[in-house]
Structure formats: structure tokens, C-alpha cells
Amino acid sequence: MKKYVLTLAFLALPLFGQSQDAREIDSAAVYILDRMADIIGELEAVSFTIETATDRLDDKQKIETHYSTSHVSMAGPDKMVYQRSGNKGKHGFWYNGAFASMYSYKENNYVTLEAPGNIIAMIDSLHSRFDFQFPAADFFYPSFTDDILADFNTLEYLGKTVVDGEDCFYIRATNETMHFQVWISSSKWNLPKRFIIIQKGNQNLRFESVFKDWDINPKLPNTVFEFLPPPNARLIDIMEKS
Description:
Blueprint: E1 24-25, H1 27-42, E2 45-57, E3 63-75, E4 79-86, E5 89-95, E6 99-104, E7 109-114, H2 119-130, H3 144-151, E8 154-163, E9 166-174, E10 178-185, E11 192-199, E12 206-216, E13 234-235
Parallel strand pairs: 1-8, 7-13
Antiparallel strand pairs: 2-3, 2-12, 3-4, 4-5, 5-6, 6-7, 8-9, 9-10, 10-11, 11-12
């Protein structure tokens, strides 16, 4: 699994180097995850909304929960746009296959960066270089199932349950540092509906996201992926992570 663990927004957790003893892998869970990944991989375009709640510790080591809602659209291998509103204000992101721009509505400023020529490489590059956060990005990696198997000691299918009125497959994975639960629609699309990450110890900090309003293969004009700075917006520079 990617270091940013399904969210590119949760705490940095020590996932790698997990013990491989007493591994329990349910083939039914693997099949469902593979099918979800295959369907996502074959989409030409997609739009969805994701609502997220993230626990963090304040300077007094008390839990604060931060909420955000993101509206995301992607097309082909090289176009992405999203708008995110939450505790940290409202931000927009545009990627057209060559450049990526992040805009702060509150500050009325933006940064534009050269980016690799496909969505996955762009996400990896901007996260590693500038710590950009992308909503639930790991679900769109072709290696999603393999990453789960590499970093969790147990993976099990727990049957069907209902999430927001929709029948879903319920899957759980655990390792030495976290619990991961995901609900995947049992409809023909088998798309993710909800997931939860709980950090073991450290007050059991929790990350939870709910997917809504999936739009499969919408017609998205190229213009929506082009960033046009608003009037009087300031272009700023940002430093790469050391």
C-alpha cells in the first residue's frame, strides 16, 4: 500500500516491514477487491463526491475531528479536477496532463507546477515533493489489491451489509498498526462506498470517508481541467519537502 495509505491525508503510519507470521487471507475478499480495481481501471472518465472525517491530535494531545467534502472528476489517463471544502477552507485543483494548479479561495492565491503526463505519476510526484493531498487516491492505483496484501496480515470478507440504503460487500484488513474496513457496492459497478482506517494505540485515531454520487463515464470537456486564475489572484511559489 502507498505510504499515504488510501487517503493521502491521514497520519504517517509505520506500515512497512510488517511481520508475515500468521497471515490469514480470504480469497473471496481478494476477488472482490480485484474486481473493483479492474472496473475502476477500465473507466474512461468518472466523477464522484467524497465526504471525509479525520481525527488529529491538537497541541494538548486532545482529539480534533476535521471534516471535508471533495467533488472529484477524472478523465483518461491524464486529467483531474477537484474542489474541496472543509476546516482548512476551500481549495481547487486542476491537472491537464502537463501542469497542475492548486488555488486557495480564501487567500485568492495559487501555485502552478509542471507535472508528469498521467494521473498516477502526477499524484506520486506532487505528494512526495510538496505533500499535496488527493482524496482517496489509492483506490485508483492498479496495484491496489497487491498493496493491501503486502501490508496487511489479515484480510477477510465479512458478508453483505447495507450502507446508505445500498447493499455492499464488507471487507476488513488488519496489521500491527491499523484496522482497515471497506464497503464495496454489490451492484454491477462494484465501486467503493465507504472506508474506515483506525490507528491502533495513540487514542485509536480514525479516518473515515464516504463515496457518493458516482457518475460513470461522463462527458467532461477538456476546458474543465484548465485552471483560469480569478481576477487579482496571486501566483505564489512553494518549497519542495526537504
